[in-house]
Amino acid sequence: MYDWIIDVLFWVAVVFLVGVYVSWRATRLDRLHVRVETARAALDAALVRRAAATLELAASRLLDPATSLVLATAAHEARTAGADHREFAESDLSRALRAVFDQPGFAGALADSGAGEGVLDELSAAAAKVAYARRFYNDAVSQARIARRKLLIRVLPLAGRAPLPDFFEIDDDPPGI
């Protein structure tokens, strides 16, 4: 007599547990997407800060005109690049900074002048933050992509309409300041 009640309760419990698990996976995926968006905002802020520090150095009159022009052009292109060309422009800025600062004795001579030490410290910190922010962003993208490859996420459209996040690959080796 009570067998059908036990069967119904069993299936209700199974459906409930499956629903809880699916809800947990969807919430985790949503948190991963929020993490990607937050990391992207932090990366954008770090890139803008590095470009601003580069422009400040280029405008400081501590460099020769040709070097100032190279840095200012690379920083301006990095700040104004569209989404399709941003990675290339940021890589060009990294290469320009390394080309300028990797000259023998350049950073030392600039730091010895006294006036450029604060600008160099800011640029060095900004370049280091770009490297950290990019690694953090790419790690978040990697985790989101791994989560979206799961069978449950693909079978049930738990990702909704969220686009698959892309990695941000740039040459972010900091200059030898």
Which SSEs are present, and which pair or pack?
Elements: H1 3-58, H2 65-80, H3 86-101, H4 106-112, H5 117-148, H6 151-155
Helix pairs in contact: 1-2, 1-5, 2-3
State the helix count. 6
Largest sheet: none
Q: Class by helix and strand content?
A: mainly alpha
Query: How would you state the average pLDDT, rounded?
Result: 86
Q: Helical content, roughly?
A: over 70%
Distance between the termini: 82 Å
Fraction of residues in β-strands: under 5%
| Alpha-carbon Rg, integer | 25 Å
- The count of β-strands is 0
Please trace the helix and strand order, writing H or E for each element.
Answer: HHHHHH
Q: Which spans have pLDDT < 50 for at least 5 consecutive residues?
A: none
- Which of globular, elongated, flat, extended, rod-shaped describes the shape? rod-shaped
